[in-house]
Write a structure and sequence with these properties.
The chain folds into 3 domains: 137 residues; 57 residues, Alpha-Beta Plaits (2-Layer Sandwich), CATH 3.30.70.20; 267 residues, Fe-only Hydrogenase (Larger Subunit), Chain L, domain 3 (3-Layer(aba) Sandwich), CATH 3.40.950. The chain contains 19 helices and 16 strands. Helix 1 packs across helix 16, helix 12 packs across helix 14 and helix 12 packs across helix 17.
Amino acid sequence: MLELNNQYTVIRRRVHAEVLKQFFSDTLLENVDKIPFTIIPKQRVPNRCCIYKERAMVRYRIMALLGINIEKDDDELKSLASYVQEVLEKPQEQGPILTTISTACSSCPPDRYLISDACRGCFARPCLANCPKDCISFSNGQAHIDESRCVRCGKCKEVCPFHAVVHIPVPCESACPVDAVKKNDEGYVEIDHKKCISCGRCAMSCPFGAIVERSSIMPVAKMLKDGEHLTALIAPAIEGQFPGTLAQIKQALLEVGFSSVIEVSAGAETTSLHEAEELLERKSQNQGFMTTSCCPAYMELADRHLTFLGQRKSSALSPMAYSAIQAKEQHPQTKSIFIGPCLAKKVEARKYDTLDGVITFSELAALFIAKEIDVREMEASDLGDTASFEDCRQFALSGGVASCVLSRFKNGGDVEILPINGLDKKTVRMMKTWEKRPVGADLVEVMCCEGGCINGPGVVVKPSVAMRLRGGNKAASPVKAMRSIIGAKE
């Protein structure tokens, strides 16, 4: 996937901040059609073919920010102001979380392996010896690949001592763990939404910005502007996303306009207790392994592609769901807004009438910029009594969910853990074998994003920075081994 620090991310964040700034200044309807020209001025040296295409991409990015399904509603003659008016007057249309911009797609050539000029035509020729399809030949002292016979196994790349074999992927297709991203007949990117698990990996991988998320920030911004009672449900991964303490982040949210703030780590404790009880019952009845239930992309994967795991999934609700229930109990009239790093949470939220919106950390950062709020300058807000769920803040890290579950697992003996640290095509193929050959573990912790939620598609900083801002690893580090034995605490 793309490094988070790139030019497309800069443009995207500028667009988000500018739109929200204009909205809170009551000038959005008047100025929204000017924003592409503000972001891409006439004197700018274009990265695409011309500034006009770059401005068109900014226009599409604004449409996605407004929650428009670009594939279905792409009227080039319609002003952005008209879209804004519609969005503010009616509820956001449900549908796929991800949408594509065909104009932005570069129609990348098919995934292939290429022999570079680094090939020395060595005597050992391990590429030729290890190719299972005999598609490598030599001429003029260099190796060549017959692409008509190549099955893209990558063996030649693995064995070349000069690293002369280059893998040239189609970034969006390679990133998708369920093969939901393909090119259509015109050669442009297309998402099969029946297969899609809304993990967002394709959007994070496309270097042309051709796949974007349909944001739900505008309805939330409108509720904030209207002064409605809103409760911010902050995911455990928020710690480390901004240069300030968790207490300062909470105060910043109150400054933005949220009426109250609930740490979803409290809901994570409830999830851990339920999963620990369920795990104990399953072990006592020798029912085999159980998987965790907090990752919505994994839950979509199980529902759409690994249906045999239905009986293996924990019946516990996610921390977000439990926290939304808590918010309604505290303030029955409140509207609950989940703030996290995950796009798939937007799909999960539709299942519960206790949730009224989901935004990402990146969208929250745009809110802070629009409201001119610096987290570092905030006074520390009272976090309340967090002792009971302090360790559940590690739900944001791979290994953290299992750690919290096991800490609440009483008198059940040792528990064997299988951590799935990131979903990709290879991992999904491995998981499919569980239908006939169930794993010997007791608890399978599944994280779609490698390293955990701190590496989700909606984060502000890369995981290494987040870990440093979190004050280092307090409980569970990203899992390196696929299998480990963790003893239960008495």
